[in-house]
UniProtKB/TrEMBL annotation:
The chain crosses the membrane at residues 20-41. Pfam families: Peptidase_C39_2. It comes from the Bacteria. Residues 121-254 form the Peptidase C39-like domain. This is Peptidase C39-like domain-containing protein. InterPro entries: Peptidase_C39-like. Keywords: Membrane, Transmembrane, Transmembrane helix.
Length: 279
């Protein structure tokens, strides 16, 4: 064998040794981290769920994998979670506590006290709030189907100052008056008729930018039903709550992120199917 064939062989052997020295410590570190994570998870049944959730987020993976790890760490199984909740978390990571803690809290009926809520503006309430999100509504969990009553609750609390008209109360109102649509959430008449029966002056308004601005500038919140787009893949209710710097402020009962934004009329107008102004 000549020298030209020996040198590449020595080079490859030397390169392998370098790679081994580089990757072996990394492999040991990964194994150590996995061992630590396993230790923490196995001892976390009585630990703070926020700590466990944080660890699971760092571990990453699909929504189902994250939920499965949390479930195992807390004495549950992935089979304890409806697929609809797994899908919800996959779409919206804001719902983590609501989804992850479902097996532990789904049967609880906590007292609802919104007396400290600031009603000087339309308050933001989430349909998947654990105080009412596990409640049954329209054939599903309220956290999945309760955007309509949550929107009407936000409007009612703002206009009346009565914080007893919370989303759970509004869900019962909608159900008892026939506004809950089994498997589909809420009928639009929850606002056009239900709002009137609650004592509000409700006006269906056209999709007109100036008409919307005029109502918002005098403090009239507007409930909008929207189709697929920025807020939903199917259908959804939101509340238009204000007009600032040429843009519209929105309370989305399914997303704090959307509710923190200001929206251009041209961006959302094509998604709006109907509008009701309240006063």
């Amino acid at each position: 064998m000549n020298t030209r064939t020996r040198k590449p062989i020595r080079y490859r052997r030397k390169r392998r040794r370098h790679l081994l020295h580089f990757f072996l410590p990394m492999l040991c570190m990964i194994l150590a981290l996995c061992a630590c994570a396993s230790y923490i998870l196995n001892r976390s049944a009585g630990a703070d769920s926020g700590l466990v959730s944080g660890i699971l987020s760092l571990l990453g993976g699909s929504a189902e994998e994250e939920i499965s790890r949390y479930a195992s760490a807390n004495g549950y199984d992935i089979s304890n979670y409806p697929q609809s909740l797994i899908d919800l978390y996959d779409r919206n990571k804001e719902t983590k506590d609501f989804v992850f803690e479902y097996p532990a809290k789904k049967d609880e009926t906590p007292a609802i006290d919104l007396s400290t809520l600031n009603t000087s503006s339309v308050p933001l309430l989430m349909q998947w709030d654990q105080r009412w999100g596990y409640k049954q509504y329209a054939g599903d969990l309220f956290g999945l189907s309760g955007c309509g009553p949550t929107c009407l609750s936000m409007v009612a609390i703002y206009l009346t100052g009565n914080t007893n008209m919370n989303p759970a109360w509004m869900a019962d109102f909608a159900t008892s008056h026939g506004y809950a649509s089994d498997g589909s959430g809420s009928y639009w008449t929850l606002f056009s008729e239900g709002g009137v029966s609650l004592g509000f002056d409700v006006t269906e308004i056209p999709l007109d930018e100036q008409r919307i601005i005029d109502n918002l500038e005098v403090g009239n919140p507007i409930v909008a039903v929207v189709g697929p787009g920025d807020f939903t893949t199917t259908g959804h209710f939101i509340v238009l709550t204000g007009y600032q710097n040429g843009q519209i402020k929105v309370n989305d009962p399914n997303s704090r992120k959307n509710s923190k934004k200001l929206w251009d009329y041209d961006r959302i107008s094509g998604q709006i199917k109907d509008l009701w102004a309240f006063r």
